[in-house]
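Retro notes - structure team

What went well: the batch runner handled both jobs without manual restarts.
What didn't: labels got mixed up in the shared folder, which is why I'm recording both outputs here explicitly, each with its sequence directly above its tokens.

Job 1
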Amino acid sequence: GSSLLTGPEGLMAKERENLKRLKCLRRYRQRYGVEALLHRQLKERRMLATDGAAQQAHTTRSSQRCLAFVDDVRCSNQSLPMTRHCLAHICQDTNQTLFKLCQGSEEVPCNKPVPVSLSEEPCCPLHLRLSPPMYVPEQVLAVPEELEAAPTDLYLSAAELQPTESLPLEFSD
């Protein structure tokens, strides 16, 4: 053990090779230089993301906050990814094409931003017009009163339906 620490001058070629392998194995999983720096930054970002929104609120950069102003006060909501506005103010961005304002109805005007879909007039869930139902229930036919008041003497009772004589069953070959 002590000969490993003294250096390669008193070691044979095989022992030197073994010492080199041992040193490589000792630092096999450790990061050095730029790789270590990037790994530490990644761990810090993951810690911020998992700690919760309470700690992240004060560390949010200004570029992640919405740029809209409401009554001369800047919006404090977080902006959508790859944009400069939050969901409530995304329609103020003239370059975006993913959201439109809901038109609402004559009785209830609405200006909520909704994602553009395949429909020509995107609406929020409150103003969504449903398509007519595809299933139409069958109409119940009215039974004429003549059939309802049929005489009961036309029907046979259970006793009348029973055979009065037992007939032998014949089987033919």
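Job 2
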Amino acid sequence: MATNRDRKHYNRAPGSHSGDADEIVIGAEDPHEGQGLCGTILSVLSWVLVVCTFPLSLCVCIKVVQEYERAVIFRLGRLLAGGAKGPGIFFVLPCIEAYTKVDLRTVSFDVPPQEVLTKDSVTVSVDAVVYYRVNNATISVANVENAHHSTRLLAQTTLRNVLGTKNLADILSERESISSSMQTSLDAATHQWGIKVERVEIKDVRLPVQLQRAMAAEAEASREARAKV
């Protein structure tokens, strides 16, 4: 059973519904909780600085994010309540608040060719393409150091693991089912990173030259046998 301390550091994403209890964010507690006297003083000084330098302070404090972007704001190193901001204009206090922009558009990347040993002990080189997007900006920033890089590394590992359980004939003839299996595995694994995997496609399956010649000779012999019959 988790202790109170564990619950404090692993709470639901700000603004999430009760049905999204599995979407936990590290350090997503109330930013005012535990802020202390020093944090309160710094917040007051920041507001005083904004008022004293008005309207020049608006050039520093007012930020804009595009329709396809969100801004995750940290105040004194703690997540700001209310979740990611945007699209449009939002306000950032100088000196005590920092923000990170997150792009929500779909991203595609090529999985480098992976040397895979199939279930029937045949070595093949397979590459794929993965389409994904950031589904929760707050989680993608708070729960993982680099969500995009982690997703790409996981895609390479998942490709090898899935193909390692298939025969060569299955890889050549069941690409759609393999792609669907990869998508399900990736989507489940990246859910805690705020990533939604939309589609996975097997691009190419390259066989060793000797195996290609052997398969061609086998097919030619089979055709000759049918012709004789």
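One thing worth noting from job 2: Confidence is low (pLDDT under 50) at residues 1-11, 14-21.
We'll revisit the folder naming next retro.
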